[in-house]
Write a structure and sequence with these properties.
The chain is built from 14 helices and 14 strands. The chain is of the alpha/beta class and about 375 residues long.
Length: about 375
């Protein structure tokens, strides 16, 4: 049989999907990070209207100018004066990530990536011929990276650092001082910053702190409407930068990856901006209530410690069960009727943790936490 390319054999299926594929219909699932909301009704209607009006064709690679302009204006509180030229539409945030690394990373170069991590980061760098280097974001530091650790990892072949706040899987986010320290590190080493801010509209008890608006030109921001407007199945996101030279390269690479984004869908997202711009905040109110519920339940369990996250819709508690690693604990919970993700699905520093996505109803969260408490109690007997 003919062989396969090294880039394919070098990557593996994610641990999150592995657990998801094992679950039955009677399981309470805290697994996939997918809002249980539907897109705004005005967007759904606008999609149908656009298709009926004939918007079913190729668009320009960068995307619908009116939508790109609206996206640019939405970031004005952080960076006034942006225009459609600063935005390129993509087929999801994951498409944007690959596009970004394809543009920045040559074979033999390396990229600094957070750990615990969104599982696509490392494989994307590998697919581009680069080396992923994972910097730990540990529980004892509230999952915030430490500058001295980063300094020990950077070298002459480091071309970029990726930051993800609010974070998947931890829900951690930054304050302004922490952001500025990380920015100064990137500036000292002349690194590209890839800033994954897809949860920027799902924050609690604080304002979102962006890397945009800091005056750093070597910055590419990634975002997605999967979380902003609960459009996970629509697969639409974007790249944004004040650096027009890199935007030209990103748009060029984007053409060879997907040619362009979905025609009618772009009109639907534009309508969501116009007619349902408060939708993310409405979702965030419900997610905050769920966050408070799940954190209080987890922190009441013996052997469980859980930071209260300030963004996204995940908790990443430390769960101590003598004699069992995180994957074994997750499998025992699955037997008990609850699906969650072992911390090691997000890298080695996730050992001892579990990820719960609170993207289900409060009633299901309560029922699921009853099962978690019963299973953990049984394992400690």
């Amino acid at each position: 049989m003919a062989g396969f390319a090294d880039r394919a054999t070098a990557i593996q299926p994610t641990g999150v999907r592995k657990m998801f594929d094992m679950a039955g219909d009677d399981i309470i699932s805290f697994g996939l990070g997918e809002p249980d909301f539907q897109p705004p009704e005005v967007a759904i209607e606008a999609m149908a209207k656009a298709m009926r009006a004939g918007h079913n064709k190729y668009t320009t690679t960068a995307g619908l100018p009116a939508l790109r302009q609206k996206i640019a204006e939405s970031w004005a509180p952080y960076q006034p004066g942006l225009s459609a030229d600063n935005v390129c539409m993509t087929m999801s945030g994951t498409n944007a990530l690959l596009n970004c690394f394809m543009t920045l990373v040559n074979p033999g170069k390396n990229v600094l990536l957070p750990e615990p991590y969104f599982p696509l980061y490392g494989p994307d760098v590998t697919l581009c011929g680069g080396e992923p280097r994972f910097y730990p974001c540990l529980f004892e530091n509230e999952f915030i990276p430490q500058i001295e650790t980063l300094e020990a990892m950077v070298d002459d072949d480091t071309v970029a650092i990726l930051y993800n706040f609010p974070s998947n899987p931890t829900g951690a986010t930054l304050d302004t001082q922490q952001r500025d320290e990380l920015l100064a590190f990137a500036r000292r080493h002349d690194l590209w910053i890839v800033s994954d801010e897809v949860y920027d509209r799902i924050v609690y008890d604080c304002d979102h702190v962006s890397f945009l608006g800091t005056g750093y030109e070597n910055l590419i921001l990634i975002n997605s409407f999967s979380k902003t407007f609960a459009m996970t199945g629509w697969r639409i996101g974007y790249l944004l930068s004040t650096n027009l030279a890199v935007m030209q390269e990103l748009i060029k690479v984007q053409y060879y990856i997907t040619a362009c984004s979905n025609d009618a869908m772009q009109y639907a997202v534009l309508e969501a901006f116009v007619g349902a711009d408060d939708y993310p905040e409405q979702m965030a109110v419900e997610f905050k209530a769920r966050r408070d519920l799940i954190c209080s339940r987890l922190n009441a369990m013996p052997g469980v410690s859980c930071h209260v996250p300030r963004g996204a819709f995940y908790v990443f508690p430390k769960v101590e069960v003598p004699g069992l690693n995180s994957e074994e604990v997750a499998l025992e919970l699955l037997k008990g009727g609850v699906l969650c993700s072992p911390g090691t699905a997000f890298g080695g520093s996730g050992e001892g943790h579990l990820r719960f996505a609170y993207t289900i109803s409060r009633e299901d969260i309560s029922a699921g936490m009853d099962k978690v408490a019963a299973t953990l109690s049984g394992l400690r007997k």
